[in-house]
Design goal:
- This protein is an alpha+beta fold.
- The chain has two helices and five strands, in the order E-E-H-E-H-E-E.
- It has one domain: Beta-grasp domain (Ubiquitin-like (UB roll)).
- A five-stranded mixed beta sheet has the order 2-1-5-3-4.
- The chain starts with a strand and ends in a 6-residue tail after the last strand.
- The structure holds FE2/S2 (inorganic) cluster (FES).
Length: 107
């Protein structure tokens, strides 16, 4: 199963095996990873699943959609070029090794 590393604001790393088809947000919430809320359940309506993709150049990630783009302007912490909503990152085999940094706050 492909793996995702979640890097907390304090540098603590949590590695999860994430089933293909599961979002990076869902996997974190199901495993109680601190720092990802996912309050809207993935309907692109809360921006509490904000992450910074640390190694985006290594993958072909799904494009940022119009609604995601709008919500990324409403994140609690600064939007950076590597910002994504983790509910929109649906795991594929090719995303094995993805690393995401978690912002200091989600709201
Ligand atoms: S879980 Fe709400 S926008 Fe991602």
């Amino acid at each position: 199963m492909p793996k995702v590393t979640y890097i907390a604001h304090d540098g603590t790393e949590t590695v999860l095996e994430v089933a293909v088809g599961t979002s990076v947000m869902e996997a974190a919430v199901m495993s109680n990873v601190d720092g990802i809320m996912g309050e809207c359940g993935g309907s692109i309506n809360c921006a509490t699943c904000h992450v910074y993709v640390a190694n985006a150049d290594s993958f072909t990630l799904p494009e940022v959609g119009a609604v995601e783009d709008e919500m990324l302007d409403a994140t609690a912490c600064d939007r950076l070029p590597e910002s994504r909503l983790s509910c929109q990152l649906i795991m594929t085999e090719e995303m094995d090794g993805l690393r995401v940094r978690l912002p200091e706050a989600q709201y």
